[in-house]
Amino acid sequence: MKIMRKLLFWLILVPVLLILLVQLYFFLQIGWWVNHNPDSTSFMRQQLSTLQEKNPNAQLKQKWVPYKRISNNLKRAIIASEDSNFSGHEGIDWEALEKAYEKNIKKGKVVAGGSTITQQLAKNLFLSGDRSYIRKGQELIITYMLEFWMDKERIFEIYLNVVEWGVGIFGAEAAAQHYYGTSAAQLNAEQAARLAVMLPNPRYYDTHRGTGYLGRRTDLILRRMNGAALP
């Protein structure tokens, strides 16, 4: 019986310690990124691996540009489209999460996330695109870590430089070049709004750029952009 208790103790303790070590790694890594730019993200590595299965020479398109060299049109468009309360919340929009939860209950599966920009960054940096409540829980923990270490501008700067915008396309500069042959700094309002609308499903819109929904949603975001508060 004593041996069984010891075995049970270690079976519980070891997983807990491993979980805590993983959280510590995330916490320290985010602290490093306050003043250093990420070289890659979990999403980048996953997509590069997928692309190289078909073409061993495949490379991602991504170029880091400072926050001030990204068009305010794009910043406003993304906030208007993805997270209208970005400057006001502490990383999580609980009302949006509640609506997503209710939608998931009705559908009987996870179909909506209610994620803020900070949550999306947490997922892109460390996690995967799989939908589950366990992954969502880890995402929330990392979100609070990001908000602890960084101000909103730094969070948004990293997001703008690493978010996926198409097949092998990551970051605002690569997206501006890929879709419009211009720089992230030179994006006009309509171009910015269209790019923002593509974010929930960028690989699809990379090859379906003329859909009716994309046009209608772009018009809506154009009307909302002026009211978007920048960090």
Automatic annotation (TrEMBL):
User: What InterPro entries is this protein classified in?
Assistant: Glyco_trans_51 (IPR001264), Lysozyme-like_dom_sf (IPR023346), PBP_transglycosylase (IPR036950), Pep_trsgly (IPR011812)
Keywords for this protein: Cell inner membrane, Cell membrane, Cell shape, Cell wall biogenesis/degradation, Glycosyltransferase, Membrane, Peptidoglycan synthesis, Transferase, Transmembrane, Transmembrane helix
Q: Report the subcellular localization.
A: Cell inner membrane
Q: Write the Enzyme Commission number(s) for this entry.
A: 2.4.99.28
The Glycosyl transferase family domain covers which part of the protein? 58-225
Principal subcellular localization = membrane
Pfam families, A to Z: Transgly
Q: How does it sit in the membrane?
A: Single-pass membrane protein
Asked whether the keyword Zinc-finger is assigned, the reply is no
Q: Which reaction does it catalyse?
A: [GlcNAc-(1->4)-Mur2Ac(oyl-L-Ala-gamma-D-Glu-L-Lys-D-Ala-D-Ala)](n)-di-trans,octa-cis-undecaprenyl diphosphate + beta-D-GlcNAc-(1->4)-Mur2Ac(oyl-L-Ala-gamma-D-Glu-L-Lys-D-Ala-D-Ala)-di-trans,octa-cis-undecaprenyl diphosphate = [GlcNAc-(1->4)-Mur2Ac(oyl-L-Ala-gamma-D-Glu-L-Lys-D-Ala-D-Ala)](n+1)-di-trans,octa-cis-undecaprenyl diphosphate + di-trans,octa-cis-undecaprenyl diphosphate + H(+)
Q: Which enzyme class, named as a word?
A: transferase
- Please state the pathway this protein functions in, per its UniProt record: Cell wall biogenesis; peptidoglycan biosynthesis
Q: Please verify whether the record's keywords include Isomerase.
A: no
Q: Which residues cross the membrane?
A: 7-34
Name the HAMAP family on file.
PGT_MtgA (MF_00766)
Q: Which NCBIfam families match?
A: mono_pep_trsgly
Query: What task does this protein carry out?
Result: Peptidoglycan polymerase that catalyzes glycan chain elongation from lipid-linked precursors.
Q: Which family does it belong to?
A: Belongs to the glycosyltransferase 51 family.
Q: What is this protein called?
A: Biosynthetic peptidoglycan transglycosylase
**Phylogenetic lineage:** Bacteria, Pseudomonadati, Pseudomonadota, Betaproteobacteria, Burkholderiales
